[in-house]
Amino acid sequence: MHIPDGFIPIWQCLIYYVILIVALYFSVKWARSNLDEKRIPLLAVLAAGIFAIMSMNMPIPFGTSGHMVGGALVAIVFLAPEAAVLVFTVVLLIQALIFADGGITALGANVLNMAIIGGGVGLYTFKGLNGIIGKYPAAGVAAWLATVIAALACAIEMAIAGTFPANVGIPSMVLYHFFIGIIEAVLTVIVLVALDKFRPDLLAWNKEDVKEIEGDA
Amino acid sequence: MDNKNLALIGVAILICVIICVLSPYIASGDPDGLEKSAEDAGVPEDFSIEEINGIPEAIFPDYAFASAPDNQVLQIVALVVGVIVTLLVGYGVAYIVKK
User: Fold this and answer.
1) What is the pLDDT along chain B (99 residues), one digit of tens a residue?
2) How far apart are CA A104 and CA A49, in angstroms?
3) B65: helix, coil or strand?
4) Phi, psi (degrees; rounded to nearest 5) at A76
5) Which among B91, B96, B92, B93 is positioned nearest to B12, based on CA atoms?
6) What pTM was computed for the model?
7) Is A75 helix (H, G, I), strand (E, B) or coil?
8) What is the ipTM of this complex?
9) Quick check: A176 and B90 CB within 8 A?
10) How far is A196 from A175, CA to CA, in rounded Å?
């Protein structure tokens, strides 16, 4: 769902950039007190992994394709959407500048959709469901919902921009990302299972008081 | 950096390189969800809402060498470069904001 240059008028891009700067302010604050020797490399490898997996478009119905995004994954690994903002600002900036994937002018909107909305919906859905259906099913549902809601937000932005109208954009975006979300859910759970097996110390859910997470439900 | 974190980075690079080697051959070339939605709404392929100037040329447009966009081996090279750049920038950014 990388929005290219030219899909959003510049004055609206500036609004999304302001949102990005505010989000980065909170993310840097979060990073200062939460990153350490272990989590700096973790953040870096998640960024690299997300860059790589985004090249792997998988076919979905309707002659369309989609790839994992990873906003929910990063937010769940760190139990912080701020981490997703940092990771996606790096990944999306590199993709826009070096690979012409996603617009430079649309960077703010793309971080908003994939990291702030994707990470936020992913994390809070996970927290809400964790105590009820268990952590892996909760993470799967969270990743799926994050993809669909981010796509919905993207469709609304396209309608505000005047690029394509909501009555076509919303059903199309939600329909395609209903399927892309399944890819997102499966890969998110696989990465979480692997991390929990080999490096459980890296998962914030193993560090934080479990009751506190369940208490949010 | 201790061995556990070096192992994490090593395994991550290995997985990324495997994805980079496979992607040019097996990734679907179909339009993604946003492109397809734009198509559904009849948005032309070279659509731009207003003229945007001053955007630098990408070194590897669409994850390929501009001189040989269909060369799959060079696409792998472009992707691996991207992984390494992302890893280094990610590490650098995390390190600097922590300081």
Assistant:
1) 788 999 999 999 999 999 999 999 999 999 999 999 999 999 998 899 888 888 888 999 999 999 998 999 999 999 999 999 999 999 999 999 988
2) 21
3) strand
4) -75, -40
5) B91
6) 0.94
7) helix
8) 0.95
9) no
10) 32
Buried b (16+ CB within 10 A) or exposed e, A68-88: bbbbbbbbbbbbbbbbbbbbb
Q: How far apart are CA B48 and CA A10, in angstroms?
A: 11
Q: A57, B28: Cβ pair inside 8 Å?
A: yes
Output the six-digit token pair for A16.
């999304």
What residue type is A110 in one-letter code? N
List the single residue in B8, B40, B61 with the smallest CB-CB distance to A41: B8
* Residues in chain B within 8 Å Cβ distance of A168: 37, 40-41
How many C-beta neighbours within 10 Å does residue B35 have? 18
The C-alpha atoms of residue A16 and residue A4 are separated, in whole angstroms, by 14
Structure tokens given for A213:
């997470």
Q: Position B1: which residue type?
A: M
